[in-house]
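Feature request disguised as a bug: please show the residue count (1310) next to Tubulin-specific chaperone d in the output. Example input:
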Amino acid sequence: MDHILENKFLNKESAQRQAFEEHDDKLQLIDKYEQMNVDEAQFQIFESFVKEKTQLLGYIQDLVVHSAKALQIDASLFYSQEVIDQHIGKIKNDADIINVKNRVIIILERYQEQSGVLDQILEQIISPIMKYLQIYIKQAVGQNNYGIPKEVSHLFQIVHWICKVRGFKTIVKFFPHEVNDMEPVVEMLHFQETEEWWISYVLILWLSIIVLVPFDIDTIDSKKDIDILVKRIINICKTHISNSGKIREATAVLLSKLMTRPDVIKSGETDFFLNYLAVEYEQCKNDANQMFFVSGILQTLTEIFKIGHREDLLARVNTVFDPILKSEVKNKFMAKSTNLRKSKVQLAQRIGCIFLKPKVAKWRYQRGFRSLLENLQSKSTLASSQQPAQEEQEDEEMEEDDINFEQLEYIIQYLLESLKDEDNVVRWTAAKGLGRITGRMSKDFADQIVEQLFDLFDDNETDSSWHGGCLALAELCRRGLLLPERLARFTPTLDKALIYDINRGNHSVGANVRDAACYVVWSFARAYAPEIMKPHVHTLSTQLIVESLFDREVNCRRAASATFQECVGRQGTFPHGIEILTEADYFTLSNRVNAYLNVSCFVAQFPEYFERMVQHLAFIKLRHWEPEIRELAAQSLSVICVFNAEYITTQILPKLIELSVDKALHIRHGAILGVSEILVGLSGNSSINRKEVLERAFKALSLKERKLIEESQNKNEFLHKYQTFSSTNYLNVHVAEGSELRQKIKHIIEEIDKQKLYRGKGGEIMRAGVCHLIFSLSKARIPLSEAERLYFFKTMQENFKHPNIEIQEESTKAFKAFCLTYLSPEDDPERILISDKQIVAEIRSMFRPSAFDENVALTRGYNMAFGVLSSQLYQVLCPDIFDTLIKNSIAKGKESDDADTRKQAVRSIIQSLEIQGIKTLQHNILHDIMETLFTCMNDYQIDRRGDVGCWVREVAMQALTRFIKLLVESQQPEIFVALKADQPQFYEKYVCVLLQQLSEKIDKVREVAGRCLQQFFKKAALNITDFSEKDRLSALFCQESDQQTIANTELSDDLSYLPWRNADFVFSQLSTFFDSAVYSPSIFKGLITSSGGLTESTLKASSNSLFEYLSTMGKDKEQGLKNKKGFLGKLIYIFQENLKDERVTIPLMKTIEMLLTSDYLSDQELVDELKQIHQLTVQECNKNKNIVKLMSSAGVFSGMLQFQEQDLLQRAVRSLLFLLYHSFPKVRILTSEKLYTALLTMEDYSLIIPNGEEDYDKAVEMLSETNWSEKLSIISTGKESMYAVFGMQTQKAQAEAQPKADGESVQIST
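Example output, currently without the count:
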């Protein structure tokens, strides 16, 4: 039962938020929300917290019992013997104390947002600790021992943490406050000067409750002859009032309790202290170094005037009014301090409350009783409760005898000015203060304050002024101080505040104003009866709907939704409130796209909200400063325009057409988008457009987020109805062919061109907008003349060449729709040559520039456009267009080669095949396309951006997979034969190239390769001939996964998610194919580039898979040796096939070095293979100046020195000696280190040093003592000696002794 009562502190929203954001291990509970009620969900989510309470109490008992034992205090004074026996001895040392204390703090931190659930055990926590501290302090002070041991310090720290979590006002109620505690606590506090500030903090809070004892402090003071106790406390507080932390806050509370005691006031200490604070403030207010002291002064005065009696403080107001409240701060740093301004506003409102007697204004509006029981009982006496006595309705006169109206007026004006402050916390403080003061005034005076609030909502005021006005308005309303007759005047102001949004350059301000305006309406709903709110329901309900659906900020959308919910529940007069709330809730509005396109579509079916929504979208959101909002607003118009097509075409569309050439960029861009999307919607394509946008938006959401906003049954029923009439073409009815409105729409682009709006700032945005308009005209299938079609085509052609990729994509999208609508004659493709021969000629003229033009933006855009032609155009332009795309897909080996152009060409190839179909194409064209795609898989071009060829490879993998899918779906045997697709080798080649990409080092490439193979084996492999290891590969790539993630590829998304980006996963899966005769060379080729690469995670994963593979070979020595020879044979094959290809050979040499140093290839029988590797390495490095390659070869040669075959050793040493005297210092230094290390670790150095130990020592000495970074001319003096040590001659000496025969040397040469 206790658990359920605790959960009453919580609501559904907080429970869901806690579970969603803080407790990932319990996220599965959200899945069950549909099957459980709110209480059950709260119970399950917070059950763990309830269980922790027992642990929390146990940990605290451990600390207290241990501390009592350590300091020899009787623990039975605060715990039962059973508890003591249970916890004694659990803490054994200082480390245990710290660990237990930290556990307590961690548990307490979890209660930060829902600290109320701690209330039932606060007494069990606080009372024993404070009882123990009470005993300890008395003993310590009695022994003049003022130091705090660590056992006690930890308890002080825990009390501080509890105060932090629950608030000190709640906690001090459990502190002991006996009279005899005062002096020991004061003494202990006086001597606390350690860095453990929480001790002083708790002692000050404790003292703040002790000073409330109902006895004269003089009667308690045992040392008043030496030093008066009150003065001692004041002096201590003076040292803490300037503290920069929480001690200052506690000190202010203590001083306020002390200074407002009757005996202290009577003694004159209060007057003296107030004068002291006033003087100190005047001296320090402009000193930035005294900021914390000034803040402490203001906080102390605020607390004094907050809890003191009016009769005691009224005469003392003048002491602080002029020196502090009216005093001007000239120091800029101090004046900008938010904390100081807030404290000054708090002080002002408290002094204002002192002037006015505390009372409940009888003139205030009261909707009913706070208690439900009283409300029910009042029904029997309805007349009497609704019509109070006449004398109670009359305005009360304020007693003016003791009020200084000049000072009161200054305070009210100061609070009104503070409502315009730049900081939110200051405005909020001023609003609360104004509400408190207004509630104590007469009706006439209060009405004057309300009148002043109107000035804050002037159009010339800042957003801070509007925000402060909204906060003050809500505060007055909440207190019943805003009378119903004022609502009519404030409602239009609220209407403006709910959409307040002011541009500031590239951003806007006003989100806080809109949020505060929602708070005001929320206050209205709670404060006023339905019959009072009824005249304003339409204005507020429609504006709240608009705000909740279309606001840019998620917090504003949620605030408006919560306000709408409050109005529906409290007022019951908002149209269709319950239906709307079932869809527009906390989670469905969290995603902006979902709010604009899903929820708005549901709400727009209600006529009460439709017009306001459309007006807001068309004339406010389409003018928004952010392009994304303008686009969303236009798309939302497209979705909802079908609910009242006549209103759209008569009231909205004509105005948007006029605005399409407005001088303001954001207005004309938004107008063009609005016209475009309305055309799409009215033509019956709104549902298609909406689906595309939502799919793009939801790709970015996690599975959890999508579950929280997924469509309900109510919405599903609506969508079924929506589909039936959203597909209707209203355009021909309301914008008939030949009408003036339709002609204006067609001429928008021409008018924009005439006014030269493509130029200058914003030209790019206008180009994208114009392309979108062409797209919409095409989607709407609006008839165009030949001249209009040619003009639109040339407009798109200009945008194909634009350097901005977004404009190119928009123009390509428009061109695709344009071709499908206007260049797709169904009966005869040749008709295009008659009706649109100029367009066809223009397209043909694009072929040559797409390959050879120096403008890369042009080549990219043209190749992108070639992929979206209509089927009829492809038939007319074939085979030239395919020849052009094939030519543009292959790198030409020039510096001007552009990877983006090749990527677009490859993508266009496969798109054209999907549009045209492969059945009608000639077999030689299909063969060329297939070979081109395989060729593109080896595009490894590198420029300053890195491996740009990977962009081409990624698209080529997807294109090749889609090509095979088209091939299989065609079911044309003659095509299979022509492409040899009826043979296993065709599919083995495909799998090989993709497995190579799957083994490489770039994460994105691996992901694309993995998903392509998944697609192939799930869709196509079932209907093709068998090939090598098809079943094993199918098992790998068709495996299911529990994870569900949307991958950003052009393939089908109905694939099980597998973590192809994870190198460990990939290489562990591929390791089973390392022995495959067909696939292992391709896998190893990719694997080698990974293991010899620079990416640490990929390098580690690939290396581990290689080592694990080699380790399995040694179980059977004979078979293991055979396998190792086979493995080296594959490496040699890769080396031979890729000689002079540094992308492969450098990582290959690094991999070989790594394998040689790992002892996995230490078998002496592998010498023949290593000789081949040595020869290939020499060939690779011959006449080469690539430092990385030369350094990698040094590692290979040094790794061969562990073998005992003399010929191999001689070759390796000669190569190392050559590198030792290379012209590059880095090569010399690395080679010397490698050779030196190899000599020290060799078992039999006589194989390379024939003259014995003396030469060995000489070689080691020369390698270690020579400075190999010196000039080569200096180092070369010892070259012959070094060669002689190894029994060799330099090339120069050999040439002098005997002429060298051609082709005999295998030395590395530069």
